[in-house]
Design a protein that fits this description.
CATH topology of the largest domain: Rossmann fold
CATH class of the largest domain: Alpha Beta
Oligomer: single chain
Radius of gyration: 28 Å
Structural class: alpha/beta
Number of strands: 17
Distance between the termini: 57 Å
Helix content: 25-40%
Number of helices: 16
Number of domains: 2
Low-confidence stretches: 467-483
């Protein structure tokens, strides 16, 4: 056997066409755990198109069989949704063993010419390594050879809308894994690797997501900071193009399932995908009033800001969110601006002051409890020093209902199509709404609720009386165009 090398070096040296020129950080995370022999149960949930099958069902298995130690057993079972799909994975491995010159050079001939067994679904190589392909639900326990149990079981996209479309079928899959697959592993060295994209709140990946005996890599195409996890392959422009494609087909929930790893049973989600509406107009200040372009007319809007503050700055802390919405005379509420980031709490008062100077809100609202009340008082002191008045800050806001009950109050507004997001800029907001109440964060919802609940409509008037010429005359206006 050749000298043992790491999986990334093996892949880039022997399989350069199967790895990207620039590997994303998540690939290195996966390789590290695949190489860690102490990791006995590993679950990998990644978006579509992240090369997870290439890594786990091709590169990793090849790396294991080529680095098999003499005198040690190695039996790998590869399971996919269907037997035919699993055979396709094995066929790729077989073709590589037969035709890859670098592998033959560094590891010798371990292809069909020297194999002990070379069947469509089952191979035993000259070094004794065995790889068997199965479909979901197939018998596993009876596959022991010479008292050798499977050392490694890889389940690759073994659940789909075809075999896990009912609660009963998903329960059957879990029962099969826990009562047949895992017990078939050799002890104490056996390991199981489950990879895929989550397909429902009740799929197997969701069950092991927080299990204490599993190590889990769980990623969305956009990270918590609003950045692509693989910028070279999926820049934000490409992600937005994909999202718009799903939205155009009336399947925005499909985008969140396939690319954000956030499915939710439609009957459990108070905010439905069809409630999501976007606009791509501009907002302009004219004679001290704000007008927004929507459906071919300029609508007068009153601006309000809702604030949800995080009192800590850490990797696992919540986000500070300050959302400005514009409300028109018909009750339509437009997301105009959103600041969402993790920042030092000492910065919060100045951030509020700066945003007020930018937008001149008719109301700025912040909850009056614990740290947020301290921030509100700090803003009041800064107002005195700067000789400005921010309406709404003087209002002491406390709640008699819990957060979930409050946020549900946004459902009727969204259901009527009256909460409208900026196209291409508010993916995180859409993500939070569709994931509620089981989402990781609800900071955006809370800030929007604050602005929506305490904001009010302007009086009814004709929106069209603001001409293009009048707007053009006003120098120093603040505007943006969402493209």
């Amino acid at each position: 056997m050749a000298m043992r090398i790491s999986i990334p070096i093996f892949a880039t040296t022997c399989l350069p066409r199967s790895v990207p020129l620039t590997m994303p950080e998540v690939h290195f995370e996966i390789y590290d755990l695949l190489q860690d022999r102490e990791t006995k149960k590993l679950a990998i949930a990644l978006p579509r198109g992240m090369a997870k099958s290439t890594i786990a069902s091709f590169i990793y298995i090849l790396w294991e069989v080529l680095h098999k130690s003499p005198g040690k057993d190695l039996f790998v079972v590869l399971i996919s949704e269907s037997r035919s799909q699993s055979i396709n994975f094995l066929t790729r491995i077989k073709n590589t063993l037969d035709h890859n010159r670098k592998i033959r050079k560094y590891f010798g001939d371990l292809g069909s010419n020297t194999a002990e067994r070379w069947r469509e679904d089952d191979i035993i190589l000259a070094n004794g390594a065995r790889v068997l392909s199965l479909g979901t639900g197939q018998k596993v326990r009876g596959l022991i050879k010479d008292d050798t149990r499977a050392n490694i079981i890889v389940l690759d996209d073994f659940e789909s809308e075809m075999n896990a479309n009912t609660a009963e079928s998903r329960a059957s899959n879990r029962k099969w894994i826990t009562e047949a697959v895992i017990p078939s592993l050799s002890q104490p060295d056996g390991r199981i690797i489950v990879i895929g994209t989550t397909i429902s709140e009740d799929c197997f990946l969701q069950w092991v997501k927080d299990a204490p005996d599993w190590k889990v890599i769980w990623k969305s195409i956009i990270d918590d900071d609003g950045k692509s996890i693989w910028e070279e392959m999926y820049p934000m422009e490409k992600i937005e193009e994909i999202r718009q494609g799903f939205e155009h087909m009336g399947n925005i929930s499909g985008f969140f399932q396939e690319y954000m790893n956030e499915p939710q049973a439609p009957e459990d989600a108070p905010f439905k995908p069809e409630y999501i509406h976007t606009y791509e107009g501009k907002i302009e200040e004219v004679n001290g009033e704000w007008y927004i372009d929507y459906l071919g007319e300029k609508r007068l809007v009153y601006l309000f800001m809702g604030i949800d503050l995080a009192s800590a700055l850490s990797r696992h802390s919540d986000y500070t969110v300050m959302t400005t919405i514009g409300i028109d005379a018909d009750g339509y509420q437009f997301v105009v601006d959103m600041v969402r980031r993790k920042c030092n709490p000492a910065e919060h008062p100045q951030m509020i002051i700066d945003l007020y100077k930018k937008w001149h809100h008719r109301g700025v609202y912040i909850e009056s409890q614990s740290y947020q009340e301290a921030c509100r008082q700090a803003v009041r002191q800064m107002m005195l020093k700067e000789n400005i008045y921010i309406p709404g800050i003087e209002k002491k806001i406390t709640h008699r209902t819990n957060k979930s009950q409050r946020l549900i109050g946004l459902v009727p507004i969204m259901a009527q199509g009256k909460l409208i997001f900026r196209q291409a800029l508010d993916i995180e907001a859409e993500r939070e709404f569709l994931a509620f109440p089981r989402g990781k964060h609800d900071d955006i919802l809370d800030s929007i609720w604050m602005a929506s609940n305490f904001g009010f409509r302007p009086p009814k008037r004709k929106n069209s009386n603001v001409s293009e010429q009048n707007v053009a005359k006003n120098g120093g206006r603040l505007s943006w165009m969402v493209v």
